[in-house]
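Dear colleague,

As promised, here are the two records you asked about, laid out in our usual form so they can be pasted straight into your sheet.

NAME FIELD: protein one
SEQUENCE, THEN STRUCTURE:
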Amino acid sequence: MRSIVVDSSSRSRLVLREVPEAAPLPDQAVVRVHSTSLNQGELRFAMTTAPDGTRPGWDFAEGLQRLIRLVELGSLRPRIALEASWQDIGDVAERFMRREISGKVVLHLD
């Protein structure tokens, strides 16, 4: 499979190259991605301090029918570490920085 990879020997520091296929655990899924995005923070990290081999990017767009089906069947559950109000974002961010939280955080807007 192809991935965007940090390569400090390249003038752009970012290259598209073949990488090993992902090997999901039983409660995980591999999703074929046709497009992705890199936000400003990911680009800044990739262009400055990211070590060679880093694969930046978290966002993707694809038909997620298989992933949705796994969630519906209950065989793929996100690990939610904390649910909080959006108004508590400052406290939540501080806890993340102190590594008191490991996993996903759901922030409610209401």
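NAME FIELD: protein two
SEQUENCE, THEN STRUCTURE:
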Amino acid sequence: MVSGAAGGGGGIPATGSPIPSNQEDTEAEGPAQAEASADGYTTLDAYGAPLELHGYNSRQQTITVSNEEFYDWLCVFYTDIEQLEGFQVTMTGQVYKNTPVMADNEFVPARLVMACCVADLSPCGLFCTYGNVSELESDSWVTVTGILYGEQYKGQEEPRLRVTSVVPAKPIEGYIFPYS
């Protein structure tokens, strides 16, 4: 994520691997066990309660991130990158680029996260590698599709997208509230 620590916080502290919901033995291996269903990915929220995320399709290896579940999915990508690597992910955000830590072929489809008040707004999203970043206008809204992969950054495995398509999108009103 561009903002905050990976996982935890108001997001999802899950680190388990998906278990197909039609599997007979669904006994959890621990408190962080995640489960996959036909149209959802079930994990635990910050309080230990089951949380079902939508847009997950294990057969087609696709994840469509909804606006309402943007932050929750980001947390899952950070905690379960090994299980989800190779999945095609689609998400919408504002183009965030040209920071000192980004290469010329990187950008983030970001949403603004508010942990407390407007003064602490921070962009949050996945780093994307894309050959045509120079053609993207900063702060424009885009829907990005790409293949999820992990890359080492400062000793940590970080999820990223290898972009296959970028299309203009309508702006999304509102902020992400990680603790709601």
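A couple of things worth noting about protein two: The two ends are 18 Å apart (CA to CA). The longest strand covers residues 141-153.

Best,
R.
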